[in-house]
Amino acid sequence: MQFDEQADLDTSQVEDRRGIPGGNLAIGGGAVGLIVVLVAVLLGVDPKLLGLSSGGGTSSSSSGVHTAGEVQSACKTGADANKRQDCRIVAVTNSLQEFWRAELPKRSIAYKPADTVLFTGRVNTACGLATSAVGPFYCSGDLKAYFDLGFFDELSTRSGAKGGPFAESYVVAHEFGHHVQTLTGAMQKVGGDRQGAASASVRLELQADCYAGVWAHHATTTPQPSTGRPLIASITDQDIAQGLDAASAVGDDRIQKQATGKINPEAWTHGSSEQRKAWFTTGYRTGDMAQCDTFSATRL
């Protein structure tokens, strides 16, 4: 995955809160509780749905020392995105915004920008307090996607994913898929149907995977306003393989198997590894968000 080195990065779309204390939050149940959280919201939706409460808790944080606002000073061009992980997240955010800004009006849907928030340890959101243990998430209350970049290390060490730049890009694109769902009204379809292999929650997550694939299909042809050229210069087959590997790593069946040795589809919230790969592939192959109607699909 390569970015146009002469491209300008718009850091106004990213809030860098790394190094800012975010308050206290407890996740009950020790190690078991952490597994439940990971299964429930890994690449998921509002953390308030977990019933999180304030108190002293355990959190993980990304490696290295970072300061608030660091991306604003460090991330200027596509060349920076080719060198630094945080600048890469800025660039992917920029690409996603430009694509969906152009795509949704074609379907008579107004686009509202979403901010990406980088944090370490814990963060305060319109959906409540959350720790890094929650994983990446989107909050519809403030239209922001939240990431502790240390998650990507956890994805490799705990879930066995191979990682890589496009694996990270897939995760960001998935969360922006939830933003699109907020704008289309799909987010509101879930209601209380939050568990089970054919539940609305699973359909929501698989659609977000498909939307991530749609963006990937168009990423190298979506022009940047300031240059007229695509911000993302190339995505290779190897990059797509990284994304598919990440999607497989966060399948409910794989996480359940690793955590308990058993697979229980009745408790699924995000879909199986094969389903997540299949829906991302559908979006990537077609480039058509109309093909991502998981809510009408008879077979997921």
UniProtKB/TrEMBL annotation:
InterPro entries: Uncharacterised_pept_Zn_put. Keywords: Membrane, Transmembrane, Transmembrane helix. It is found in: Membrane. One of its GO terms (cellular component) is membrane. It is a single-pass membrane protein. The chain crosses the membrane at residues 25-45. Its main location: membrane. The keyword Membrane applies. It comes from the Bacteria. This is Zinc metallopeptidase. It comes from Streptomyces kaniharaensis.
